[in-house]
Amino acid sequence: MFHEGCHPHPLLLVEDKSDQVREAYCSGCRELIQDLSYRCANCKFFLHKTCAELPRELDHPFHPQHPLVLYDKPRYDSVGVLFKCNSCRKQKGEGFVYHCSACEFDLDIQCALLPKLITGNFPKLQHFSHQDSLLFIEKHYIEGADQSCSACEDPISGPIYCCFDCEFYLHKKCTELPLVINHPSHRKHSLTLKPTPPSSHSKHSLSLQANYPHEKGCSCHLCSKLPKGFVYYCSPCEFSIRIKYTFSHLFEAKTHEHPFTLLPRPMSFICDACGTCGEYCMPYICTIRNLVVHKDCISLPQTIKLRKHEHSIFHIYFLKENEVRKRICRICRKEVNVEYGSYHCLDCDDYFVHVNCARDKTLWDDEILETEELNQKSSETLGEGEIKHFSHDHKLLLSDEIENCEYYCDGCRRSISTAFYHCAECNYFLHKCCAELPRKKKHWNVKKTRTLNFEPIFWCYFCGFYCSGFCYVNNDDRLPSICFRCFEIPDYFTAHGHEHPLFFDHKFTRECSICNEKYGRFRCEDNCEFVLCRRCIALPETAWYKHNGYKHDEHPLALTYDDDVHDLYQRFCDICEESRDPQKWFYYCATCDFSCHPLCALGNYPNVKLGSAAQLAIHEHPLTFMKDNLGYHKCSKCGKSCKDAFYKCVESECKYVVHHLC
């Protein structure tokens, strides 16, 4: 069996489903374990029985040139770039893969097993648009991939013809298009089907290419866009139409009660559905309501649910108001002209979104959760003032004795300043509000609902710090965790140290004004040059400078935004003794006249609880997180002195020590 060489420990077949581990994922196909599986008793390694019994070599119809060899991990090219599956084009960093080294051809497990899902004998087609024969697939396994039809540019679905070596896909219906048609928008000549848009020197195409110099070719006369797929083309007139618009002269709109009719004359107009200008293209009109719209806008959804808003938003063509006031789009923070189409929340009078902003499907909330799921609590009440929380083994007792309390909440890692729960048996504390957090929650920038979890040590991909305590995870997409503090940051807020509100622009990136990080996406609403990255937003208002876990200064350091105190010769960091930029944020103690860079004050692990124990795959026993700047401990892996964070085995007889980076 293949599994005998892909894992160093013996695997045991689990035949009783009651013995299956909850939320376990197969290391071969990365799918949830629900059937018979092999399990490693020493580490978290699982395999479906079917994945463990896969053949080492496979003759596959998607790549008939050479047999594919099964590998226990994805392959990388010569410069270290991870290959994509040649079928679904998804890039996976985990799981088994069938690979041909001669052709650099890869298939993940799901796509490699595709023939079991297909009926037929793989008939082939020689199409005029492609030099190689196309393989017919009646039912494919590419759902959710970013592949589109090379003819109509729509996502591939249903029966398709494809060439995996060239990444060429055609809907079956697109291979049956007539080669010559007559169209009402161009009565002078017939239109011929072309596999690629011809280059054009017409006035229409040249004016469009002047605005988009990177685009070349003949633009569509219905939408004024430069097509990437097939077109119907008239050579004498340099007239072209995209495939997706060829057979739609009359269209029933989702957002309108009357049908729209194509006006076969190119013109410039302002679209009543989205409020943007249509330049020299053919509009669709409604004569009953006197509306003129783009072709793309007649299929706008009536309602959209955004992740960043609790209610659905509805499309409106215009809004009559007696009150004159400014309407701001909640995505781009620019003004919305309500005399034209926009999306509006009926429950929130001032919530508007531009149509073109709302079109971005990456912002949509497609996941529907029941009320019971969203209201699932993270703790169970045992009695008055007593709870059992999922993050701790012992019961927790309620207390409001916050005076002189120097403890930190183990959930959010902030100091205790309000009512809290504590454990009578060990040193564990939770804010009352943290103990009452819902177990499931949605985030404005994450597609799937996340579950509240407790981890001794984890890396937050939002702020980039290592943390302890509460984090939000999603086992389905296996993305990195988000710490509790970052999860609570809104997409629109007024930041300390800047006079204008900031908002998250998912299409914008520029250097952070504070730390020069390249990926600053929180920009100023007032269009000034101020930009913040996620790490700088997560900086705490106050911090203690700690050395080996002990406070180095008796006063807390305050995050300071404007250096108008020190003269030019005193702008140095008192920790690293390097110069400070007076325009950058820094931490400062006015009593001691102590100033330092943010990262010098916080270090690399400001949110990690020293002494946290975690079970890591590199060692058989739990390891404790510690810090040592003096180098008294040597790493068991690299042999060098540990002068930063390291892990030490909790077993006193075991002398295992390892660097955090090792």
UniProtKB/TrEMBL annotation:
Phorbol-ester/DAG-type domain: residues covered: 8-59
Swiss-Prot/TrEMBL keywords: Metal-binding, Repeat, Zinc, Zinc-finger
Pfam family membership, one: C1_2
Family matches, as PROSITE patterns: ZF_DAG_PE_2
GO molecular function terms attached to this record: zinc ion binding
SMART domains: C1, PHD
Stored PANTHER family: CYSTEINE/HISTIDINE-RICH C1 DOMAIN FAMILY PROTEIN, DC1 DOMAIN-CONTAINING PROTEIN
Protein name: Phorbol-ester/DAG-type domain-containing protein
Lineage of producing organism: Eukaryota, Viridiplantae, Streptophyta, Embryophyta, Tracheophyta
